[in-house]
Structure formats: structure tokens, C-alpha cells
Amino acid sequence: MSARGGQEDNMKIVVPIENETEDSNINPSLGRAPYYLLYDTETEAAEIIANTSKDSPSGAGVAAAQLMIDAGAEVLLTPRCGDRAYAALKGAGIKIMLLPSGTAKSGIAAYLEGGLSELDTVVKGHHGAH
Amino acid sequence: MRVAVFSGKGGTGKTMVSVNLAAVSRSAVYVDCDVEEPNGHLYFKPDGVVRETVTVLVPRADPERCDGCLECVRFCRFHALSYSLDRLMVFDDVCHSCGGCSVVCPREAISEHERGIGTVDTGRSGDVVVHTGTMDIGEAIGLPIIGRLLEKASAEDDDVFIDCPPGSSCMAMESIKDADFCILVSEPTVFGAHNLGMVAELARVFGKPVGAVLNKVIEGEEDPSERFCIENGIPILARIPFDLELGRLCSETTIASWADTGYERMFRDLLERITEAVG
């Protein structure tokens, strides 16, 4: 993954994933994904982070955003994003790119080649007081 | 006495029953706790309505004092807070106003501010005081509005009839928690009987005496809700027939027991049975 698609700086890319493996498929839910893959373009090392808030009754998206901010992520690849997580991530200056499906690895490669576009629609949060 | 009228399923006749019970009482208080879609006022058309705003407290951080220690973010179990780029972000609509963030903050950076989430309207229709709670559009948490409604109702001596939100969520729990008696309104469908079971269980957990009103009853036809009541020892207080005229009056937002002596008698009988049951 040497091609950078115009990205000069080293960066950390985060992707919500299904399984605790580096070649896992992405998970469709940002807040409820069981794991996140954090990829460092400088060291080319991938780290898997467990999502401790995946079963939270409320605000799982915000918790996920905080986890990504704390992990130092600069780019998020995701199929969808809730409005609150979007606000938190954007507030932290994290770039949010649309990755509809596939594995996290293929998504990261596609991003580094400049093949992904920015996520431009957010999902309205479905919070309930139930 | 305080009577909560509730049901698992929506559309079984909670509003019809609670509106008519209040209407046949000598003087009564009708409380519409169905704050997501209150409609009892359409029947009572109350006069002299006074509106008050219901507010909750939400946190705001002083950026001068906040040093980004994340104590509050970690504390909030509803994840209403996030911190990035030297700034605490608050998601007001997820906040449950517990105030914990301001307690755990070691730098006293968090203060609480009022935010409006809905209204309580109070008016009068004949001898009935009508309280209507309404959530603002886009809000998710209606509990403080229900709390305020019941607080206002408890200030009055007359019998109180509480029109509850459907289901067995925390909004339904809040609505029944101070009631002396719960009326379970059901309809003769499998869905109706299933959700009747859910609210019967809820009333049992809260230790409330219950009685059922079977609505839309078709003579000679199988009623799964009636079977549920018999099998579970729930007293049946009334059977309201599946009646075109009653349906027509309700759809025109007419109070049936004020318009027709037959319906007046039916709801008076029900009120009498409830009064006996409460003791």
C-alpha cells in the first residue's frame, strides 16, 4: 500500500469490522460493530480494537466516535454514520469516507489509491428512552 | 382515586375509555400522558387553556476550566458527551439530565442549563380539568413531561383518569406508577391479547390492582383477550360492543357519554365497578 492518492502525510485509518481478524469484512454499523481495525500507514501495522460500547442502550455512535478520537484516527471508512457520531467525528477533524462493502483491507487500499468518496449522507439517530 | 388506563397495543380504546370515565364523573381530572400523540383534548375541547413549558437540565462546559480529562465522557452511560480538539461536545437529545457529569468533573467546569422539551396545557371542559402533555417534535425523552403532568394532577382532590402512552416502555411505567388502579383496555385480536399480556405483567411488577375492559367485542365470536383474562384471573369490568355508532361518535371527537344516555349508562357502570374495586 505505497500509493497514497495524493495523501502525503502518514495517517491512521479506522474501519468498523465484523471479526477479530485483519482480513475481516467491514461491519455495516458504526456504533454496534464488535471491532475496529486501526491501520497505520507509516508502520503499515494493523491493530484491532474491541468496541466496549457495542451493547450500550444509547449513544453507541458517540462512544464509537470517542474511541476513534482517542485512538488517534484521522480517517474513517464506513458504509454509514449516525448524525451524532458524524458531528463528534467532524468536530475532531476526522475525515469520513464511504466504504459500502468488502473487507477492511481492500477498503484501505482503495482509499489510499484515491478510490473512495466522502460520506455525504448521515443516518438520523434512532435513540429511544425505552 | 387515581386510575391509569393503559394497553399494550395502540388503538384499543384507551382514550375513549379514559375520556368517557372522566366525563361521567361528577368532577374529575383527565391527564393525557400520551405525550407523543395526545388526542384527549380533541374530545374535551377545553377552555381557558394555560400553557407551561417543560424543561430539563443539560450540561455545558466552560472551555477555560475544562482540561480534557474525560472523566465526564467516561461517566456518562448514555454517551451524551464526547471530547475532541479541546472541546466538550454535548448531545442534548441523548442526555438524561442526571447531572452526574457536573458531579464527577474535578475542575468544576460543567454547569447545567435549562432546555425546553415540550409543554403541558391545562384547561377546563365542564367539570373536568384537562391536562395535556406534548413533546416537541424531534425530542426522544418524554418522561419529564409525564412527571410534570402527574405532579399537577396530584395537586387536585378529584378523581384522576390517566390516559397512558401505548406499550410497556418507561413512559407507560411513569404514567402508572402512582395509580391506585390500572384498567387494561384490549381488543379481540391475537395482537391485542399478546400486548395485554405485556401490560398485565407490568402492572403485576408494580403491584397494581387491575381490571380489564374488553373493547370492540363481537357477540358470539372468539376473543383471545377474554381468554387471557379468564386464564390469568383478571376481572373483566366491561365489554364494549363493536358498535358503528360509538365508532362514529369517536371519529367525530364527540364524547359518547355526553351525547347518548345509553353510553352514559355504560361508562357509569364501569366507573361504579372501578370505584368498588379500588374500595
Can you describe what's shown?
The complex is a heterodimer of chains A (130) and B (279). Chain A is α/β, with parallel strands linked by helices and 130 residues long. Chain A has helices at 60-70, 83-91, 104-112; strands at residues 12-17, 35-40, 45-50, 75-78, 95-98. Chain A is built from three helices and five strands. Chain A has a five-stranded mixed sheet, sandwiched between helices. In chain A, strand 2 (35-40) and strand 3 form a beta hairpin. In chain A, helix 1 packs parallel to helix 2. Chain A is globular, with a radius of gyration of 14 Å. The N and C termini of chain A lie far apart (46 Å). Chain B folds into two domains: 2-54 and 117-278, P-loop containing nucleotide triphosphate hydrolases (Rossmann fold, 3-Layer(aba) Sandwich), CATH 3.40.50; 63-108, 2-Layer Sandwich (Alpha-Beta Plaits). In chain B, 49% of the residues are buried. The mean pLDDT of chain B is 95. The chains are: A alpha/beta (130), B alpha/beta (279). The A-B interface holds A 53, 56-63, 65-66, 69-70, 84, 87-88, 91-93, 125, 127-130 and B 70, 73, 76-85, 87, 89, 91, 93-94, 96, 140-143, 169-171.
Task: Tell me briefly what this model is.
Chain A is α/β, with parallel strands linked by helices.
**Mean pLDDT across all amino acids of chain B:** 95
Count all strands of chain A and give the number.
5
| SS summary, helix count of chain A | 3
Helix content of chain B: 25-40%
The ordered H/E elements of chain B are: EHEHEHEEHEEHEHEHEHEHHH
What is the CA–CA distance across the termini of chain B?
Answer: 9 Å
Uncertain segments of chain B are none
What is the CATH domain class of chain A?
Alpha Beta
Oligomer: heterodimer
Summarize the main sheet of chain B.
9 strands, mixed
Tell me the CATH superfamily of chain A. Answer: Dinitrogenase iron-molybdenum cofactor biosynthesis domain
